[in-house]
Write a structure and sequence with these properties.
Length: about 140
Amino acid sequence: MTSKELIRLYPITFRYLDGDKQFSKYQWIKAKIQKNESDIRPESYKVKYDSIQLLDIISPVDGWNERKKWILNKSNMFKSLESMMKARDADEISMGIIKPKHIKGCIIRNKTKDELNEALSKKKAIMNQLDMFREKLIWIYCQ
């Protein structure tokens, strides 16, 4: 079954997935999933790791039109944060997209060396955490 509704597949310990199971952004996957009964959010599902099959990647060619068909689908869109919050209160919806009417500005800047070092430290701390079901992996950073 194919729908254009947003769903949450978790928990996925992505770094522990075998190479043939690691998917990229905007890549179709086929997998066995089941409703996560311990999560009240209607979009939450558990995925069976060994059932993951990698399929096509939706490329950004043609001005993102193919991706737009899926992401900006009417079932995922809300007119405002308030309308999304009403859906949350009524149906416990926790995922959605709000398309801004106007973008007043956008600032893009390179991170400072301190910001890069802080991000690297956080990444190392996360990578050094033990998963209760996995052995600790060694992560090596080379400059």
